[in-house]
Specification:
This protein is α+β, with helices and mostly antiparallel strands. It has a four-stranded antiparallel β-sheet with strand order 1-2-3-4.
């Protein structure tokens, strides 16, 4: 490894043998180092590989401000999350999670705790991400002696959702609220509580997740089913009650989020609703 620049006494920006930029950490590893110097591999305790140049700049800035133990902890948590989601995880998670954890710990030390108004919705819509958030909270207690509430697990889960769906963190709030709102409208329409353990319900919520993500990314919705006029007419006739519920969802999304869903989506929702309801 060759030094590109010293960040501080414990962190270096280096070029590895494959020509890739990395950030390496170790006690005293950056002391007296300058451009072109060789790095003693035995001193490297942590390696942060970030390919995006803007994220790398943020990481370097954070390493100057955030205690090394917090950065190391966040990196270990990201490694654990990657073991659950080996693909499709945005590398921004290391930066956002490091920043969030450091801020949350400082808040805790000052006696400031936030409640998460979406915790119930996250538990219902993103149970696996919340479970990972709870793991991070348990590790904060075990490794750093910091006790956090389950609300904090929800906030961490939102960063994981953000990294998985590649959306803005602000959109994660709206996406989660939209999913929850669609479920509530459907249950009110059918006057029944859906079985959360039913595979049809899981598929319905999964579909709502992808729909919400597309809408908030302004991605076009598919237009395949509605092109088959015979099939579209059959669904409206045989699934009339469910199609009307889909129209209620469409109205809710338009009024609340100013986003429209097309005929294909109405047909797909009607099919899911027929399976998830007992009617």
């Amino acid at each position: 490894m060759k030094v590109i620049k010293a960040i501080n006494n414990n962190n270096l920006c280096v070029l590895d043998d494959n020509g890739k930029e990395q950030i390496v950490s170790g006690k005293g590893i950056g002391f007296g180092k300058k451009y072109g110097d060789t790095v003693d591999q035995s001193q490297v305790q942590k390696t942060y590989l970030i390919t995006d140049s803007e994220l790398q700049k943020k990481m370097i800035s954070m390493l100057k401000e955030i205690p090394e133990e917090y950065m190391s902890f966040a990196n270990d948590m990201v490694d654990h999350i990657k073991s659950v989601y080996p693909t499709g995880l945005n590398e921004s998670l290391l930066v956002t999670l490091s920043d969030h954890i450091a801020f949350a710990i400082e808040r805790k030390k000052k006696g400031i705790e936030f409640t998460n108004p979406l915790i119930d919705s996250i538990r219902e819509c993103y149970p696996q991400e919340l479970s990972l958030g709870e793991y991070c909270v348990s590790q904060l207690h075990e490794r750093l002696g910091i006790d956090m509430t389950n609300d904090e697990a929800g906030f961490i889960a939102m960063h994981i959702i953000n990294a998985r769906s590649d959306t803005k963190i602000s959109d994660v709030y709206d996406i989660t609220k939209m999913i929850n709102g669609c479920v509530e409208i459907s249950e009110y329409y059918y006057k029944e509580k859906f079985d959360r353990n039913n595979v049809s319900y899981e598929r319905f919520v999964t579909h709502l997740k992808f729909l919400a993500q597309r809408l908030f990314k302004d991605e076009p919705l598919p237009e395949v089913l509605s092109n088959d006029e015979v099939f579209a007419a059959m669904i409206q006739k045989t699934c009339n009650k469910h199609y009307k519920c889909a129209l209620c969802i469409q109205e809710y999304i338009m009024k609340t989020y100013k986003k429209n869903i097309n005929d294909d989506e109405l047909i797909t929702l009607a099919i899911h609703l027929k399976k998830v309801s007992t009617i």
